[in-house]
Prior knowledge:
It is a single chain. Helix 1 (9-35) packs across helix 12, helix 9 runs antiparallel to helix 12 (256-288) and helix 11 (242-252) packs antiparallel against helix 12. The protein has a domain at 59-254: MetI-like (MetI-like fold, Orthogonal Bundle), CATH 1.10.3720.10. The model has no long low-confidence stretch (mean pLDDT 86). The two termini are 35 Å apart. The longest helix has 33 residues, at 256-288. The protein is built from twelve helices and two strands. The relative contact order is 0.13. With 289 residues, the chain is mostly helical. A two-stranded antiparallel ribbon has the order 1-2.
Amino acid sequence: MEKTWNNRAWFMVLPVLLLVAFSAVIPLMTVVNYSVQDTFGGNQFFWAGTEWFEEILSSDRFWLAMGRNLAFSAIILAIEIPLGIFIALNMPRKGWGVPVCLVLMALPLLIPWNVVGTIWQVFGRIDIGLLGRTLYTLGIDYNYVNDPIDAWVTVIVMDVWHWTSLVVLLCYAGLVSIPEAYYQAAKIDGASRWAVFRYIQLPKMSRVLLIAILLRFMDSFMIYTEPFVVTGGGPGNSTTFLSIDLVKMAIGQFDLGPAAAMSIIYFLIILAMSWVFYTVMTNYDAEKK
């Protein structure tokens, strides 16, 4: 019997495709167009070719911002992943404490990014902020506005407070999916808590951990709102990440060509890193099977 295909389902998908084309593809093509042209105003454009790409890739400004991004992402992962695993391991599995802990973990994720930045901007002020005033009273010289180290510490602690919950929830989901029989067998064998974690819990969490690392790396690498609200990229350029530098170039300096080229490079870097993570996850699944 010959198999027939019903292509009418494509008409149901067509609105989504049009929406994606309008909201993603068309703006992307506009950015690509700006990246290879120059303008002096008056809606007049001149062909520039790869001039802006060469200028961005040869500038210290770009590579310094890239270094800050990579350093920030590395620090965030080094803190949030172990901390998230530790909290998830110590959360209750049964009883009334489960919904309470899950709600508390989810609360920071519900706060908008600009509100998080505003909260920590006020929280860290030495005149009215609880954190800043307390440290000042204790004799600790803390001022995230003037000290680059204090600014970095503030941005890192803020991100840890905001996003560790995501790692916790993912790890907790992996832990609760482990059958009770594994723990019973480990108890019979007299396995220590470290052995249970090393040979039972960690392997069962590996999939969600890869997802957590992917999500947190991508989000931390593209961070913009929180540090922009708190420090504005300062003091100096100490917290000027690629996203903040891109906005300064496009809106503050109105250098549309270089900004467009930088956004394309930024996009390609994120795309390449996403592909690497996807390849690692796919190969891991293939090995497990």
